[in-house]
Write a structure and sequence with these properties.
Length: 204
């Protein structure tokens, strides 16, 4: 019951500079559990923002009265990456040697926050459920570890998709659980759930 709400929420997204992504924002009004109404949308071109600083933006809502006040900071991603299987970062013996030295016992207390990192190779899925009328699905895979979320591209009309992507996450808590979820892309509608697996880091 407010026309001037204050949320004071922070969200972290991984943005890679080779992509031309827009940040899409929607404001909704909820009367009860069943009725929702869109109060407006706005868009931010991330590539146009200065990096390594906090940008204060007042964004007018399109085709609706009102505006959003936001703080957006674009900073380099550290330790988080997506790469193709053919250029797997840990495939280089020299890099493996550097990592072994970085985490050896004598360097344990050099950087207390640097617990380590997790590298996940997402190869393929087999015999997925058909979510479309055509008897096929448009699957993509989402990986979540703590506050980090990365995803593969979508393989269209396929129940046995091959992604062949390598994901690297910095580990912030050894008790975290890696959650891998497969969804069916459904155009403008929310994606359909196709399956999920949870892997505690302590089991790796």
């Amino acid at each position: 019951k407010s026309a001037n709400p204050q949320w004071r929420e922070q969200f972290d997204f991984h943005y890679f500079s080779d992509r031309k992504d827009m940040l899409d924002i929607e404001v909704w009004r909820k009367d009860n559990k069943k009725h929702e109404e869109l109060l407006g949308t706005c868009h931010v071109d991330i590539t146009a923002l200065p990096t390594k600083q906090t940008n204060c933006l007042e964004l007018p809502l399109e085709k609706h009265p009102g505006s959003l006040l936001m703080l957006i900071a674009v900073a380099p991603c550290t330790g988080v990456s997506i790469s193709d299987l053919c250029v797997c970062p840990l495939g280089d013996p020299n890099e493996r040697q550097q990592i072994a030295q970085r985490y050896c016992i004598k360097n344990s207390f050099r950087d207390i926050k640097d617990i380590g990192f997790l590298q996940v190779k997402v190869l393929k899925a087999v015999d997925l459920m058909a979510a479309d009328f055509s008897g096929k699905s448009d699957p993509f895979c989402v990986l979540e570890l703590g506050n980090d979320m990365l995803q593969t591209h979508t393989v269209y009309k396929n129940l046995n998709p091959e992604w062949n992507k390598v994901f690297t996450f910095p580990i912030k808590d050894i008790h975290d659980v890696l959650e891998v979820t497969v969804f069916d892309e459904d155009g403008d509608k929310p994606p359909d759930f196709l399956g999920k697996v949870a892997i505690p880091l302590l089991s790796v």
